[in-house]
Amino acid sequence: MSIFRWRRTPSSCAWPGWTATWAGCLRPGMPFFIILSDMLTESRISTPPTLSFDGLPYSPVAHFKLYFYAAVLHILSHLEAPTRSADDSRSPEQVLFEQFPFLASYNDELATFGLSGLTIDDACQSWQAATEAWEQSAPRPLPISELSRVSGLGYRALSLLMAAGLVEEDARFGALFSAMQGLPDQPRPTLTLLSAWWSDGDGYGEVRSLLRRWQELGFLEVTNPGAPRLDWVYQPNPVLWDALRGERLTHITPWLRYQACEAAPALNALTLPDSFRNSLGRIPALVSNRDVQTVILRGPEHNGRHAVMAALARECRRGVIEVRGFAPRNEERWRALGPLAALLEAMPVVHFDLGPGETAELPALDGYDGPLGIILGRQGGLLGPSVESALTLTLDLPDAPARRVLWQHSLGVENVGEDTLNAISAGLRLTSGNIRRAARLARACAALEGRAQAVSSDIQQASRSLNRQALETLAQHIEGDGKLSDLSVENETHEELLGLLSRIRFRETLPGALGPALRGQINPGVRALFSGPSGTGKTLAARLLASELQMDIYRIDLSAVVNKYIGETEKNLNQVFARAEELDVILLLDEGDALLTQRTAVNNSNDRYANLETNYLLQRIESFHGILIVTTNAAERIDNAFQRRMDVVVTFHMPDAAERWGIWQAHLPAGHSLDADFLKEAVGRCALSGAQIRSIVLHASLLALQAGHPLDKTVTAQAIQREYRKIGSVCPLRIS
Question: Do domains 256-394 and 657-726 have the same CATH topology?
């Protein structure tokens, strides 16, 4: 007869979906499963010569049930028969079953396994031997067996854990515990009760040690830690208990997420470089041979790192448990992670979001010795025993051919034209995750406009939406409209800007055109310094450059980035740089001399921390994979090391007369009535910057609107005089 027989009537159901029931309350040495004529019949009992679970399926659910019964048998071996009056003709078993009717059903159920006629102690030993034989015959180690092996907790400890959680499976056990403890309001077992049942006359020390070990692993919690130790009440951790009983969990907690092995993507289904895919395919063998235990995967956010880890776990025949953020050993999430991974046959994947110079200590996972995945950005480091045998891989941004495949899959062949696909693959250097997110938004934008296919404008709009969501708390989006040819600067400056434009356009293909000595020394990042007096067009040039490249440009908001607390400025800057890398936007550090200051002699702690901040910026700018433009009107205040790290340095000068003429012509509105002679005199006599000319034309246009006539000599002269008053100088223009 099957050990797990379903019962449909409420009176005999041991707990929902199960038919396990208790046997009688018997004394040690008393024959076990005495067949009571009023409760059991010969037709319902089989007595094979040897107890065996050969027909039981090898599953976590079945394994849990075996240990559940083991706990029942052990408790039965230590129960005393209830007290009866002298004239009571009932047997001890009858008295017990009348007091706890559900125990009769347990007795009935367990009697069907060939334990009749054995003493209770022999029955316990027979159950243990059959359980261990069943475990050893399993085609592969079961999760509870793996947990037992790694934690060093065997059959006795597991049955003790089950006893602490009996009431979780059948609330009626609470009445038995209350009666045994003499505590009417306490349905859970205390340390005193568990020690009495499991000590076997050798003192309580070993039982306490086993319970403490289950606490360390996170399985048991003390509900009343302020009470005397012997009155401590134990209850199981709900998440670990569900995993122990073989349940498949998905969203375990807000900080833990489980993905089954079969739900993970196949390695061949991911869009990855062939060399990287081949390296991943070799890792399972290294893990199996214990050559590698930890795999560290570095790279930018939203670039498929979690998908790669899930695929790697699938290659190792495991699911994935993802935990985000560092959790010290004494935190519940960290203590539970190892046992949870063992029970769910999953690879833990821990995501650390570390800032520059930060190091996280990674303690060993108690209760688990399988592979471990760590996801990191480009910054930060790790310490701990798990890192000693770690293999580090880096998942870079996809190249243009890979981006084309990702866009094609994400947008759908029928939803995008070939020209659009080629343009966005070459122009938008996004992470794989951001490509998928942008594609969804682009399809929505196209649908709103009634188009079946997404066009470039839809994709640009979707990309900008992603940028704003990620960057606008630390940087300000500025509009760029126009071309570099609209900028009135000297020829040398213009040539440098065109060179910068080419450097950005060929940033991905340039390494392939270099020799071996240079190829490994550069990254796709481009760093430029625009220096010159205020108002000479540095910021305007950056905006026009972004417009030419059809890229978004964001000005770093120093008020949001700079923080008085040590290390916070570096963290904020790292966040801005990391987001700019993954979203492929231009970062503008306006008035960069405020941050890129020269290092000084260390006279106090402020000097030391200021130098540390400068050193961090030096390293982060050098390793930056995006586009950074720094503007300054005080280049002499910038540390020389920053200037050496700039790929392009563009110097802006005050415009000469010819350049000022071009600036005036570019800013004057159509239909103005300003005569040429006056304009020539203003250009020749007033050595103004481009920003000052812009301010003059803006104010003159306002005066013309107020007067109700086109912009003319009178309002322009007034605006020029106002501008000179602003800077505290005398206007050189003769105004009649």
Answer: no
What fold does the segment set 484-651 form as a domain? Rossmann fold (3.40.50)
How far is CA 716 from each of CA 627, 659, 703, 705, rounded to the nearest angstrom? 39, 19, 9, 12
Burial of 730 per CB tally in 10 Å (0-12, 13-18, 19+) = exposed
For residue 294, give the H/E element and its range: strand 294-298
Provide the residue count of the chain: 736
Sign of CA dihedral 662, 667, 669, 675: negative
CATH code given to domain 256-394? 3.40.50
Amino acid at 607: D
* CA distance linking residue 293 with residue 287, whole number of Å: 6
- pLDDT reading at 106 higher than 70: yes
Give the SS3 label for residue 180.
Answer: helix
Query: Which residue shows structure tokens 């991905």?
Result: 508
Residue at token pair 């592969």? 140
User: Any idea where the domains of the chain sit in the sequence?
Assistant: 42-235, 256-394, 400-471, 484-651, 657-726
**Residue 622 near residue 513, CB atoms below 8 Å:** no
Residue 218 to residue 136: CA distance in whole angstroms: 26
Are the CB atoms for 351 and 325 separated by under 8 Å?
Answer: yes
Please give the pLDDT value at position 343: 92
Q: Give the contacts of 282 (CB within 8 A, at least 6 positions apart).
A: none
The strands making up 526-531's β-sheet, listed across from edge to edge, are 475-478, 553-556, 586-589, 627-632, 526-531, 648-651
464-484: per-residue pLDDT in tens?
A: 888 777 787 788 888 878 888
Cα gap 446→411, rounded to integer Å: 11
What is the rounded CA–CA span in Å between residue 304 and residue 276? 13
CATH code for the domain defined by 400-471: 1.10.8.60
pLDDT at 719: 93
Q: Residue 601 in 3-state DSSP?
A: coil
- CATH code: domain 657-726 is 1.10.8.60
